[in-house]
Amino acid sequence: MDILYLLVPLSVVLVFLIGGVFWWALRSGQFDDLEGPGFKVLLDDDSPGKRISDPDAPTSAEGERDGGFDLRQKKNDLGG
Questions:
Q1: For residue 70, how many other CB atoms are within 10 A of its CB?
Q2: 66 near 58, Cβ under 8 Å?
Q3: Which of 2, 8, 12, 17 is the least crowded, having the fewest Cβ atoms under 10 Å away?
C-alpha cells in the first residue's frame, strides 16, 4: 500500500506532462493537415524529366549531358 503514495502523484504528473505535450502539438500546428501528405504520395509524378535539347548544356566527364534530364523542370514540378 505504501507504493501508492509514490505511484498516484507520479501518475498525476505524467498526465499533466502528456497533456502539456499534446497542447504544444496542437498549438504548433502538428495536426493541421493530416491528409495532404498521403495525397502527395498518390499524385507523385514518377516519370523522368524532359530531355535537354540545348547544345550548350554542361557535360559530365564521360561526355554525356548530365544524363540528359532537365533538372530545372523537375524542380518546378516539385514547387521550387
A1: 19
A2: yes
A3: 2
